[in-house]
Design a protein that fits this description.
Layout: E1 33-43, E2 50-54, E3 59-68, E4 71-82, E5 89-93, E6 98-106
Antiparallel strand pairs: 1-6, 2-3, 2-5, 3-4
Length: 110
């Protein structure tokens, strides 16, 4: 129960044997950006593009793009920020190329 969550988390339980009275206390993350998952590498980049993290109710997250030749090889989180939820968007712009995309893995809820 509770209120104010930015997204729904599911906690799965499995029986470990006979018994009663067990208590489960889930620990949710603070909604920080844990990692960025590259969806498409794009093409034509001559310098690292800017990575913008927005929406989802969070603040303070930053990231950088890493190039291989003329495409984005990965994006690295430099600051996780706090308070991000399921509506977080990642924009990769500039650097002379197009087509790179990424999604955020938010700490606390997949």
């Amino acid at each position: 129960l509770g209120s104010g969550y930015s997204s729904m988390c599911v906690v799965s339980l499995a029986a470990l044997g006979a018994g009663t009275g067990g208590v489960v206390t889930p620990t949710l993350g603070n909604g920080s950006i844990a990692t960025l998952n590259l969806g498409a590498a794009g093409s034509g980049y001559t310098s690292p593009p800017a990575v913008a993290i927005s929406g989802g109710g969070g603040t303070g997250a930053t990231a950088t793009a890493n190039l291989t030749a003329t495409s984005v090889a990965s994006a690295s989180v430099t600051a996780g920020g706090t308070g991000y939820g399921k509506d977080t968007t990642i924009s990769i712009t500039g650097g002379g190329g197009t087509g790179a995309t990424a999604t955020a893995q938010i700490q606390g809820c997949p």
